[in-house]
Amino acid sequence: QGTLYPDVIESGSSTASTIKTHHNVGGLPDWMKLKVIEPLRWLFKDEVRAVGRALGLPEHVVDREPFPGPGLAVRVLGEVTRERVRMTQEADAIFRHELRVQGHKPGIWQSYAALLDVRSVGVMGDERTYEQPIVLRAVTSEDAMTAEAAALPFEFLQHVALRIVNEVDGVNRVVYDLTGKPPGTIEWE
Asked: Could you tell me if 138 and 171 lie in one domain?
């Protein structure tokens, strides 16, 4: 499994509070008769990256962004449907593409789009809309135990927001999450 030490810490113990339940912490059901192998369980992400570099792995592999094991379901808040996954994927692709082509990707630990489980009133053309908002999240971090919102230029965020509302059917609002960790977490769920 891809369990790292921050996952173990955040999932709590008999002596620590549960900050967040991680899908990959806690083992397998007894009936499976399998043994979980977690060679990186006691390492932080920066330490895992150092091991990868020492092994000679390519930088694009070593510096790959973390991605939740349950996949996009973690980034689709509320009911997970094909339509809601599509909206999330399209918004995420636009955000990540623009980060890369406009040179804002270096230094970002993790970036993604999440779809909220609320509706938002808006105006498209001369019509009222009642659609869903997308949250953009980009953070900087060294070890995933703490993180800060990436200081992206306002003009960049405006450009990305305009692309998303114009190109992603069902989305009429885009917000940028400025919350650090703590008090928030990197993923919304």
From this structure: yes
